Structures are given as C-alpha cells and as structure tokens.
Amino acid sequence: MATVLDSHFLALTAIVTLGYQIFFFIITALLKFDKVTDFAGSTNFVLIAVLTLIIKGSWHFRQVVLTSLVVIWGLRLAIFLLMRILQWGEDRRFDEMRSNLGKLAVFWIFQAVWVWTVTLPVTVVNASDRDPSVQAEDIIGWIMWSVGISFEAAADQEKLSFKNSPENRGKWCNVGVWKYSRHPNYFGEIFLWWGIFVASTPILEGAEWLVILGPIFLTLLLLFVSGLPLLEESADKKFGNVAAYRIYKETTRFVIFLLFNLFNYELRKEVTESSIFLISALSFHCHNQYMGTYRYGSKPFFSLNFLFTVGVCHKKGQTDMNF
C-alpha cells in the first residue's frame, strides 16, 4: 500500500507527466524534430496508468481493467499517429512554432496538462483502497469504452486509407463512419474517456468526484478549442464553395450522431462560451445533489447528460459547426 507524495498520486503523476513532456520538448527544440509529439502524448497516458497501478500494488480487478483499457487505447493511438506522421513527413501544426521556442514550450506544457487532467479517473482508481464488487457502472463504462475505441480506430484507418489513395486528393473523407459524422474519431475518443470515468464511479467519494474534470476537459478541448474548430475552419477554406460539401455538412453531426441520422432528428442550440461553463457547473451540482441519495445507476447518467448536452450544441458565433 504505497503512498508517494500524496495518497491519490496527484503530485506524483503531475511530476512524472511534466518531466516526460519536458524530455520530448527538449528533443523537439534541439533537433527540430516534431514527429514524436503525438507519440509522447499518447504514451504518457500509458506511463501514468501503469506506474500508478504498480506503485499502489493492490491489483484490484477494477484497477487492472481500467489500466488495461488506457494502455490499449494509448498504445494503439501512439503507434497509429507515429506511423502516420512518419509516412506523411511533416506536422503542419508546428510550422509557426519551430522557430519560436516560447510557443513550442506553451504547446508542450498544455499537452502535459491535457494528459494529467484526462487521466484523473484512472489515477484515483489506482490509488484507492476501496474495492467494491463489479457494478452496473463498471459494465456501462466498459461498453462505452468499447464503442468509443471502435469508432476511433475505424475512423482513423478509414481516413488514412482515403488520404493515401491518389484518386481522393482534393476531396473530403466521407467513407465508412465518416458518412455519418465529420469527426467520428473525436466522437470515439470523447465517448471512451467518459466510459472510463463512468467505470471509475463505484469507488469515488467526496472530492474524488472532481475527476469528472478529466472527461469534461477533453470534451471542451476537442469541441471548442484545438479539435473541431481548427478542422472545420480548414475544411471550410478548402471546400466551403462546393455545394456537395455543404450538403455533407448539413447531413452529418458529431456527438451521438447515430441518433440524429437514423431518426432524422435535429436539435440545435446556440450557446456562448459562458454557457459551456454553466453546463459544467450544473453537472457538478447534479453530482453533489445525488451523491448521498442514489448509490446505484444515477451518477453516471448525469455525466452522460452533460456529454449529450454539449455534443448537440454548437458555439455561438462560430462557423456553422453543425455538431
């Protein structure tokens, strides 16, 4: 029952994550070699999950399962992204950063924050002494993870194959799961991490519920900061004047896209940036209200309600996000 720096391993994981990212930042800055960036981010998740499991040493079933899920996701994504960037030969995200050490450092620090925050559920589970039997939340979370990683893996492979085909140059990807969503890989990533959070809820008590910040942070990051906005802006510049692409945008969604497309149901809601944080606050309020009332089943569904609410909204003033 090891305790390192603090009982929840929060300081330990922060130090390890920061050190790991600094190491790769130095390689990138000195060698002008940014092909390991995504590899460093994805493998950092694996490092944190395995390290906390080993240090704790209790090897509870729930700890082993959640650690394994993170390892499978992290290694798959790391290998895929590394092979893709080696094949493509460049990472355009760093075109303006390679000669600006300050901007490059900010990026790597932000990546460290991303890793540490998103891994909070598995970190706290691995640090816990509590080991209740398998519950409905566990099974729901595992199913969500399975669905999420299936969509993410399928979307990644389909888009890679599409881009590697010479006949598809200058076209947008609309094959496979991309027929139904413009960003199924992001949908899968968000969904699987919410699944990991749901599977962690049986052991959460008191302030430990703050680990919900992990999936919330990831959701807001991909929907409103560095994920969809950048890709949508880029696609609009390339294909915005193409009628077929505009139709594609009108007939596809992002989160819970199967519900929208299979049942032809549209729900659009204009929200400001402050509304997004209000939704987060309401989610916390729901958890606080029901923590002492419902032990089984209710808690995870407040989190899913938050995910659904954010997913079907699009940011006010942004270019036709059409989630």
From TrEMBL:
<feature type="transmembrane region" description="Helical">
    <location>
        <begin position="104"/>
        <end position="127"/>
    </location>
</feature>
<feature type="transmembrane region" description="Helical">
    <location>
        <begin position="43"/>
        <end position="59"/>
    </location>
</feature>
<keyword id="KW-0472">Membrane</keyword>
<feature type="transmembrane region" description="Helical">
    <location>
        <begin position="65"/>
        <end position="83"/>
    </location>
</feature>
<dbReference type="InterPro" id="IPR010721">
    <property type="entry name" value="UstE-like"/>
</dbReference>
<dbReference type="Pfam" id="PF06966">
    <property type="entry name" value="DUF1295"/>
</dbReference>
<feature type="transmembrane region" description="Helical">
    <location>
        <begin position="12"/>
        <end position="31"/>
    </location>
</feature>
<keyword id="KW-0812">Transmembrane</keyword>
<feature type="transmembrane region" description="Helical">
    <location>
        <begin position="186"/>
        <end position="204"/>
    </location>
</feature>
<feature type="transmembrane region" description="Helical">
    <location>
        <begin position="210"/>
        <end position="231"/>
    </location>
</feature>
<keyword id="KW-1133">Transmembrane helix</keyword>
<protein>
    <recommendedName>
        <fullName>Steroid 5-alpha reductase C-terminal domain-containing protein</fullName>
    </recommendedName>
</protein>
<dbReference type="GO" id="GO:0016020">
    <property type="term" value="C:membrane"/>
</dbReference>
